[in-house]
Amino acid sequence: MEDRGLEQEPETSEKSVVASSGAAESGAVGAVTESLDPRLRDLTKLWSNLPEVVKAGITAMVRACYGQD
User: Fold this and answer.
1) 6, part of any domain
2) What's the pLDDT score for residue 40?
3) Does residue 38 have a pLDDT over 90?
4) Residue bearing the bigger pLDDT, 14 or 57
5) By residue range, what is the domain housing residue 42?
6) Which of 8, 28, 55, 59 has the fewest CB within 10 Å, making it most exposed?
7) In a domain? residue 7
């Protein structure tokens, strides 16, 4: 077996969201999503089905709140 270090993810401008599907049996990921605001949890579940224009609008509104144009 080949020794490997930590694999680096390619840098992207988008943040990734941890979904509860495919989580470890320990429930660690599920515990994180359970503590989220229900509105954010709903948004993360539905995000992949939203039209790109809606995703861009939501992202722009959030960034504008924090001065991150």
Assistant:
1) no
2) 92
3) yes
4) 57
5) 38-69
6) 8
7) no
Q: In this structure, is residue 11 part of a structural domain?
A: no
3-state secondary structure of 29: helix
Q: Above 80 in pLDDT, residue 67?
A: yes
DSSP class per residue in 30-68: HHHHHTS-HHHHHHHHHGGGS-HHHHHHHHHHHHHHTT-
Q: How far is the C-alpha of 50 from the C-alpha of 55, rounded, in Å?
A: 7
pLDDT of residue 59: 95
- Work out how many domains the chain is built from and give that number: 1
Among all chains, which residue has been given the structure tokens 């939203």?
Answer: 50
* Residue 10 belongs to some domain of the structure: no
Please state, as a whole number, how many other Cβ atoms lie within 10 Å of the Cβ of residue 60: 12
Distance CA 57, CA 63 (A): 10
